[in-house]
Batch of 2 targets.
Target 1
Amino acid sequence: MPHPSAEARPPLNRDQVLVAAIALADKDGIGSLTMRKLGEELGVEAMSLYNHVANKIDLLDGMIDRVFGEIDLPGDEPDWQTAMRRRAVSARETMSHHPWAIGLMESRSTPGPVTLRHHDAVIGTLRKAGFSIAMATHAFSVLDSYIYGFAMQEASLSFRSAEDSAIATQMIMARFPADQYPHLTEMAVEHILKPGYDHSNEFLFGLNLILTGLEKTRHTL
Amino acid sequence: MPHPSAEARPPLNRDQVLVAAIALADKDGIGSLTMRKLGEELGVEAMSLYNHVANKIDLLDGMIDRVFGEIDLPGDEPDWQTAMRRRAVSARETMSHHPWAIGLMESRSTPGPVTLRHHDAVIGTLRKAGFSIAMATHAFSVLDSYIYGFAMQEASLSFRSAEDSAIATQMIMARFPADQYPHLTEMAVEHILKPGYDHSNEFLFGLNLILTGLEKTRHTL
DNA sequence: ACCTGAACACCGTTCAAGT
DNA sequence: ACCTGAACACCGTTCAAGT
């Protein structure tokens, strides 16, 4: 009897492995997600995991597809901008819960079914709003680039500023010696580091700018 | 005499290490960049590298800062949009040469001097064009999110489509079974996979949309 | 000052063996 | 059908030792 509940516990399945892997990556970062640690988390040796995932790439593919499932699909809102805004806000929220996923979501070479369904729903909303195929492609490209790019910047910012913003300020200022970077310093000191500033407001500014711009091209081409 | 040119060759320096590391990552991907392989490339044992970089994180920081140096700074163009467009196009071009760098450029916790100078120049151009500090922050955020997000998508696309687009088509279509993803299929078959389509055109569409949107807010706030 | 050999504590993955 | 132990070919990094 290796450990108490060894034969009491039913066998693992793929979904349990994926859920545990996501939880581990959320907690300790993707760098700490190793087959050995994941096995330990599940009360199993690392080698057992290969009964449920083909290899680590397959594990990551499965994790990403599961994360995509957390993003709201654009719904049946009458206004296409409202639908796109809700989906974009949800995507950003999801990625803020799983920052390790951001770089991976768009770079999997084999997107899963949930991912494909998500993209299909976004394109469908655009087409129903009257965008031509060419314009829908443009819209899809600019929206997704913006959403993922913003999430990437936000993840690195929250990583940079760590827990204490006062300490972060000290550290940042120490790296801006003697007005070598006057505009960056001005922006930091006079705006970003001021109490009222909230970086998350930047997201809606850019999103609305893009949606407004797209509305104007909706019936062209 | 370990190898022929051992005492003929002058000692390594940090820049040679960074240049070789970038070349290796360009050639084989970031996953193949190991201290041992990098040492081999330089005719040296892996342990010698620690005389020139503190550790692998420091190596990556140095590589990224050097890549930032390849991006054109926004110049003294009279039109701020022209300056921003040139810088954005250059950034995208640079990242297409160094796809491994994309996920890392915005996520380094200690940006180097070249990186800071780049950001300072971008903000300076916006401020000189009349953007308030708050509006320049908005503009900086939306532009950078878009540029990095687009580069990320482009890198994964070129990775996905591998060398032969016909094979890629087969593979993609095999994953769209029985009209489960009608809009995605339509976009692929009727537009993206057609001979005339060039994904790189998407970049300027989104960039111009954002620049036009920003121009309208240039004198607000 | 720069480089090396040996060692340590890790990785992902295979495979034969167990139940 | 699922899990394990032992093994293989790797990692980054430290450290004492060489020149």
Target 2
Amino acid sequence: MSPETFGAPLSSWQTGDVSPAAAKSRAQQRVAQSAAIKEVARRLIADKGVTNLSLREVSRELGMVSSALYRYFATRDELLTALIYDAYNELGAAVERAEARVARGDTRGRWRAACLGVRRWARANPHEYSLLYGTPVPGYVAPSVTVVAATRVTTVLARILSDDAAQRRARPSRAPTRDVRDFLQVDALAPTMPGVEPAQYVRALIAWTTVFGAVSFELFGHYVGTVTNYSRMFDAVVDELADLVGLA
Amino acid sequence: MSPETFGAPLSSWQTGDVSPAAAKSRAQQRVAQSAAIKEVARRLIADKGVTNLSLREVSRELGMVSSALYRYFATRDELLTALIYDAYNELGAAVERAEARVARGDTRGRWRAACLGVRRWARANPHEYSLLYGTPVPGYVAPSVTVVAATRVTTVLARILSDDAAQRRARPSRAPTRDVRDFLQVDALAPTMPGVEPAQYVRALIAWTTVFGAVSFELFGHYVGTVTNYSRMFDAVVDELADLVGLA
DNA sequence: ATGATTGCAAGAGCACTGCTCTCTATGAGT
DNA sequence: ACTCATAGAGAGCAGTGCTCTTGCAATCAT
């Protein structure tokens, strides 16, 4: 029961209340309740990890009974999918913001900022990062909607490479030893980084993979005994990767 | 009940039986039962993933009651830890075997074989790979015993770099721009790859990270829409990494 | 050989989970 | 004002990890 039960009811503009008890249209209530559920679930995941997320606990915190939750999310996986979608967008937004702060001409600085943005977000939200880049939930096939949300980070990285290529017109690239068309979706990749030669795609792929690989290794404890200062180590890796892809 | 219940009992050397029903000492029975439990658990994980592993199902398959299982593994996590330990050793052994098949002088071939060994094992045992390199179970701190098992693969990779460095005595390495002593456990690393200059460690780290990063990305679905032929892509990546670390 | 001790498994039970079903108020649309 | 869809309540099912007690059987010491 909310406090409004006693005395004169307050309307939402007075209380700043966003709870579904405030007067709202049915549709508004529904999205508000959905958001409240996701918010609580998010916090619980942040606290105790995905595997320990229980719908019953979420419902308890919201003061409702567990069965009522199924009006909003048909299954636990559906709730998780919604959270994954949100998390991808949050990570993407964080990286975009970090990268946007650097002068356009400084492609290496932008690369550094974007990579650091990934790591920063991951360290701030380790369990949500795991949700995205850890073991996928069994039987889970990413709905296409989450797939496009997932591309926000790679889009940023691709644009940096593209801008860098545009800056210095003639790139003295090594001769391609393999035709990447044999194993990469060149038609899909090319539009995202115009100006970058397909011969460079493998290195770009390595850079992308290494950024997330390093963050995962750090978070999942695989660097224990090897690395003493993760921040400096990551900086060094990111710089070396910038060299690899040939950033200015 | 095993077949030996009827007719003349056969001893284990005749049947090749490893079931605890065969006549054995108490200690032998215990390890046999432990092994049986792990074997069933392994199969169930391979089938349905870690999160769907249930101790009760394991006990059911073994024809015993669930509480009996706790004589062997005090908790679910303890069973998982045992499985993780075994998996690390299996992966390590597989990589060692693959790498050993290549002539010692062919360091690039050995590198390729080792990396392919990782990917091959991961694809053959995706759920166990996830157990090792996916999201760690929450609250799980790797017991030191699993840590050393985990180093088997990196030991192989380090030795390849070391042997390569020994072959061509004077390496024309670029000047180190950073002192890796600031962020790497150089004292622990150096003995594992004698002859390799610390300035090369960052690249070695990238190579190691990328190999597992690429395998994880492939298995966890992050390359969907980007890569069309995973085997060829992995080959290209491995080759590029060999270039990066300067293999012959 | 006999008696004490120890180890293994069974069974019942607790607190929890995801999820389904039926039922009842209450708000929305006619 | 009367329908009617909807959000939530409540009970319940099948499953989970784990604990505790009880009985039996193999081992050990005498």
